[in-house]
Amino acid sequence: xGVAVSxxxxxxxxxxxxGVTTEAEGLDINAIGVILMVVxxxxxxxxxxxxxxxxxxxxxxxxxxxxxxxxxxPRRRSRTVVEDDVPPAGPPPP
Length: 94
Prior knowledge:
By secondary structure, the chain is mostly helical.
């Protein structure tokens, strides 16, 4: 369920809860409205939690190389480890 569907469910539930004053035999319109609002709010919260993993807004970048077009992967955190294997300066030990 996306953000748009959640908002529509919340709006429809609010209309049924507070906007409709007629009575239907065998149906509680207010209860149906509250149920729709709760489902819409839950869907909206879940959509916001998973927004980044579903896509969201990502900027796509690309670079051009000599032999054609190559897409660039998004930047990720990286760690560079530099090991110093150079012997200390000075004369060699006896």
